[in-house]
């Protein structure tokens, strides 16, 4: 059981091993039982996906108490280490179901053929007996479990209809119903299992062993025994067993299995690599940064499995309506028997029509229509390096009509370069050179994670400058930083920093410095002032200018979004407006919100939601966490190595491929269309058959074919999403 704390509540997602039945009533009873457990705030139990999601107060209850709470409910909570064994069991059960379907078909055909050929009655009834036993086995178990919990479901409907057909001398119709019902159930389980196996197959891509360097020699070690800090060797053609950083060698790595990138990525010392990807060329020595269970591919698999247990809104609605709907079908069936009999109709024909009506009105296709599509969409996204953190977010992606982008690292490449270093004429230190100014700035910026700071430090390293240690470092979000270097306080910041943080101080050289900033920004560069404070006096030393490169596929991605009918596209940035507008014009963005502080980005997203209702926010998942959480749909890029991205966003793009953003919205829209088609097929078949039965009547076999046929069609239609490529 994995527990992810989110104070003051904790959430655990667990695998459920079912014992003794398939009915959903057991899931509801377990859910209600857990809800009544002290400290439990919310529960979602799904036997379809074999999981439960429990939100609880850790100060009131514990993981062990939750285990005890289900001991008498015909289920057991499994550890995640049992997932592989559970998968083997699931496949074995599917094979058994398929065998039962085959025996049901054999028995039905034997009974029908023997009756046609006037064969021995014993053989005919033996054939039908086989069909009824094997065709009704799982349905009867589910019906019994349902009744134990004082509820009804579709299993009970089908068993009653089959027994009813047998009771009026129509054994073939009942056998045919059980055959098609068991066949459709088997196809449903196959569809759901395939969507889950599409993700589980990723773990099979990771090798079981690694070639670890020990005392200068290569030693074969199981990956579970490899520790963080160990160095292993990967040769061309080998799969990389664990996440790590390249320490020696150069090559290209195929990361398609994790990030969906179609082009191999060059790797050199200092670059991050991920377990399960393929080293295409060059021998690499890699230092382990995460153990096997913490790797990016393991987290992807775990989070997709958790996402599959999160029901989409449409599915939650259908689940709520299932119980009253089934009760309504029983009431309609009873009325279809009682009213004609009261009016003098003969019993056999009346009962036959009522059984036909019961079969036709059953909502099997309606219930499977949503999970078949949503689970396939989640699995399809996972294989493309796109992680939906729940079925709800798949449906949300279909409704997005406005998208907001962070600029740096999202629309731009994020590899900001220092382009200009200027020393102000007339500074108190007349010997200060460009290298001296850069050295001072790098000393301060070495303590910062901002992209401009990293560019400053890189430039100092490229020039092989000596950089002193800084003390008393302080950062003002979205404005600037300061620290003590060589006993004097150095300030580095934008216009807002000097006008607000140092607004009360008299600053020598501020006006010419701000004028120079304006000129640099007019050239499309981001610039900052560097000033030194000594004995209460502040003097501008100079300024630094930076530039960032727009991603080459950004404009194409924006065009793809417009083809998906996205109405409004916005860029949010803390950068100055001129730089932001230049980039916006280059890629075709509608609106620019510049010079924003982190809290102002949140306010901007809130305002966009008021204007457009459904807004997606795209960022890097680190600096944009509040805005991602505020948007209708938060999309984080480059999540393969970013824990914050995995925790914050609703959708995580494991790689940095901008084309995956239209893919997310396109998959959501395709899923919505599939759901609409599935529900239209399901309700249309029910309405057509019920209306025909009431007005004219149809044979029971035709109702069976219509009912089970629509169930099979919606299952297969949902599976088509597994092949969606955008």
Automatic annotation (TrEMBL):
Keywords: ATP-binding, Cell membrane, Ion transport, Magnesium, Membrane, Metal-binding, Nucleotide-binding, Translocase, Transmembrane, Transmembrane helix, Transport. One of its GO terms (molecular function) is ATP hydrolysis activity. NCBIfam families: ATPase-IB2_Cd (TIGR01512), ATPase-IB_hvy (TIGR01525), ATPase_P-type (TIGR01494). Belongs to the cation transport ATPase (P-type) (TC 3.A.3) family. Type IB subfamily. It comes from Halogranum amylolyticum. Coiled coil: none annotated. Residues 69-90 are annotated as: Disordered. It is a multi-pass membrane protein. GO terms for cellular component: plasma membrane. This is Cd2+/Zn2+-exporting ATPase. It is found in: Cell membrane.
């Amino acid at each position: 059981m994995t527990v992810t704390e989110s104070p003051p509540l904790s959430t655990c997602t667990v695998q459920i091993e079912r014992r003794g039945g398939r009915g959903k009533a057991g899931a509801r009873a377990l859910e209600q039982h857990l809800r009544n457990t002290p400290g439990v705030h919310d529960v979602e139990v799904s036997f379809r996906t074999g999981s439960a999601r429990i939100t609880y107060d850790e100060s009131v209850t514990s993981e062990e108490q939750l285990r005890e709470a289900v001991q008498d409910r015909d289920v057991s909570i499994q550890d995640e280490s049992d997932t592989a064994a559970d998968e083997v069991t699931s496949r074995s059960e599917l094979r058994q179901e398929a065998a039962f379907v085959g025996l049901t078909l054999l028995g039905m055909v034997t009974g029908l053929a023997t009756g046609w050929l006037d064969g021995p009655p014993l053989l005919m009834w033996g054939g039908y007996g086989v069909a009824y036993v094997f065709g009704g086995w799982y349905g009867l178990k589910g019906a019994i479990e349902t009744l134990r919990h004082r509820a009804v479901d579709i299993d009970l409907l089908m068993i009653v209809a089959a027994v009813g057909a047998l009771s009026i001398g129509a054994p073939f119709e009942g056998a045919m119903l059980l055959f098609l019902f068991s066949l459709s159930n088997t196809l449903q389980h196959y569809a759901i299992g395939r969507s889950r196996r599409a993700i589980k197959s990723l773990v099979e891509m990771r090798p079981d062993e690694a070639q670890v360097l020990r005392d200068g020699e290569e030693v074969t070690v199981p990956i579970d025994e490899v520790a963080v800090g160990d160095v292993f060797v990967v040769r061309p053609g080998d799969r990389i067993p664990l996440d790590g950083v390249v320490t020696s060698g150069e090559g290209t790595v195929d990361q398609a299995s994790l990030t969906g990138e179609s082009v191999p990525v060059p790797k050199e010392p200092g670059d991050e690599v991920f377990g399960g990807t393929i080293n295409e060329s060059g021998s690499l020595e890699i230092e382990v940064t995460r153990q096997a269970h913490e790797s990016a591919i393991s987290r992807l698999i775990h989070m997709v499995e958790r996402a599959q247990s999160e029901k989409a809104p449409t599915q939650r609605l259908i689940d709520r309506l299932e119980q009253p709907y089934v009760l309504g079908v029983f009431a309609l069936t009873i009325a279809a028997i009682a009213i004609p009999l009261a009016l003098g109709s003969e019993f056999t024909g009346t009962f036959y029509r009522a059984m036909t009506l019961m079969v036709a009105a059953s909502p099997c296709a309606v219930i499977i229509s949503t999970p078949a599509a949503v689970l396939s969409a989640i699995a399809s996204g996972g294989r493309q390096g796109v992680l939906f953190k729940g079925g709800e977010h798949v449906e949300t992606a279909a409704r997005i009509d406005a998208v907001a982008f962070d600029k740096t690292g999202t629309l731009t490449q994020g590899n900001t370069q220092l382009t200009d270093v200027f020393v102000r004429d007339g500074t108190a230190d007349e010997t200060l050179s460009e290298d001296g100014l850069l050295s001072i700035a790098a000393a301060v910026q070495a303590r910062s994670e901002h992209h401009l700071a990293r560019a400053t430090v890189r430039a100092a390293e490229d020039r092989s400058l000596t950089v002193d240690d800084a003390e008393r470092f302080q950062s003002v979000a979205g404005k600037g930083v300061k620290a003590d270097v060589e006993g004097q306080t150095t300030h580095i910041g934008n216009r807002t920093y000097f006008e607000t943080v140092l607004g009360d101080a008299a600053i020598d050289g501020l006006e010419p410095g701000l004028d120079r900033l304006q000129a640099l920004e007019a050239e499309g560069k981001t610039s900052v002032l560097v000033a030194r404070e000594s004995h209460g006096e502040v003097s501008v030393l100079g300024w630094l200018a930076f530039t960032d490169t727009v991603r080459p596929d950004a404009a194409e991605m924006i065009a793809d979004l417009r083809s998906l009918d996205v109405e409004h596209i916005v860029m949010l940035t803390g950068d100055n407006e001129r730089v932001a507008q230049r980039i916006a014009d280059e890629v075709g963005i509608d609106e620019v919100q510049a010079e924003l502080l982190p809290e102002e980005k949140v306010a901007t997203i809130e305002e966009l939601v008021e204007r457009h209702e459904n807004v997606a926010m795209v960022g890097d998942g680190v600096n944009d966490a509040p805005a991602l959480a505020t948007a209708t749909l938060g999309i984080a890029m480059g999540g393969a190595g970013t824990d914050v991205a995995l925790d914050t966003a609703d959708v995580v793009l494991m790689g940095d491929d901008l084309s995956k953003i239209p893919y997310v919205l396109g998959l959501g829209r395709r899923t919505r269309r599939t759901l609409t088609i599935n529900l239209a097929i399901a309700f249309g078949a029910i309405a057509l058959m019920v209306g025909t039965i009431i007005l004219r009547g149809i044979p029971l076999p035709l109702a069976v074919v219509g009912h089970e046929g629509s169930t099979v069609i919606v299952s297969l239609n949902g599976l088509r999403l597994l092949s969606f490529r955008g």
